[in-house]
# Entry
Amino acid sequence: MKSLNKLCVGFYGTSEFSLSFLKELFSQDIKISYIVTKPPIASGRGKKVNISPVHEWGLKNKIDVLTPADMKDRGLLDYVKKKKIDLNIIVAYGNILTKEIINIPNYLSINVHASLLPRWRGAAPIQRAILSDDKETGVCIMRLDEKLDSGPIITSQKIVIENDDNCENVYKKIVFFGKRILKDAIFKIINNEVKYLYQDERFATYAKKIKKNEAQINWEKNAREINQKIKAFSPKPGAWTIIRNSDTRIKILKADIIKENDYKKKDKLKIGGVDQDLGVRCGKDFLKIKILQRDGKKPTSAVDFLNGNKISISEFC
# Structure
């Protein structure tokens, strides 16, 4: 069996999710020849320019970091062609690689994806799985091709989505198992033991990027659907609502569903109405808020919120 510590890779990634895998590769004494990540962006009220987590880590570890605005950039291609790498490893980079770059490594270009492909190709697989009330998801290592998340699978791991799992919980499971199977996939590649599982296009679904307005709660929906949104967007960006007759925005990070027949105060509330224990009437059934967060404040339990806040909530809109 060939050793991993003689491998040289090019890494393409941007997010905290990407960084978890980059750190794991680094801990295995794999040489990171260079990092390619999304360009810095200006965000926030002051339009501060922020570099990606992967970019920041690369600079601290004195690794070359490239931030091309266009994957067809000639400078990028000329640079990576000069490097003698064994693998391209792509994890939540945010751009599709060109065929020229895909074909550079001695072995393969491989991609880590946070779903059980072909279900939930695209930008937001964890959130879309939870929003759709999927009972399982997973992580796949696949051979990269020129289309979005469509390459043949080298290895994968199923992960159960428990009833009380939110996006953060599922994310942590995927990172934990993903790091394990990435190492396994690399061993298979360098020892010529790969047996590909080709994706069935008939079952492909697409996890489109989350839009800001998707996180707003519509209390006309049934409690189960709203609760899936709360779990999918917890802790970030947070499913949110507004207190009627105010500009106070509240993020709801955890809630329990209470069936219509089990809620004693149901006759006193209209849709969006909130009782003194933070129970909310939905289009069908009720939600009992457990953890919430005011804008600019830290998350707090419903008990602490009720004990420590002077604001009055009678209805959400």
Q: What stands out?
A: The first helix runs from residue 16 to 27. The chain has eight helices and 16 strands.
